[in-house]
């Protein structure tokens, strides 16, 4: 493999972080649905479990912003393949959009 066609290490890490975030978001959706269906109604406030899911959602979005930044940085590096950078940036962007969409819809916050 020549140096002009080596894979981008930042792109690979970006994709791995973004894929981890996608699995983490799916787990948050499952956890939030279990918490809301099993917790008794407590009047007007959200239960502490749902609040914890909201904090974890904020952590997830921050992690995906890091993954997107790493993907963009890998796209800017000369002499490396751009595939993993594109996949990492795209996956992170999709996960961020899904997380924000679910939060705005009220399913996780």
Fold blueprint:
Layout: H1 9-38, H2 48-76, H3 83-105
Give the tags:
109 residues; mainly alpha; 3 helices; elongated
What report would you give on this structure?
With 109 residues, the protein is mainly alpha-helical. It has 3 helices and no strands. It is elongated and about 60 Å long. The termini are far apart.
Mean pLDDT: 86
Helix content: over 70%
Q: Please state the structural category.
A: mainly alpha
Strand-residue proportion: under 5%
Gist?
By secondary structure, the protein is mainly α. It has helices at residues 9-38, 48-76, 83-105.
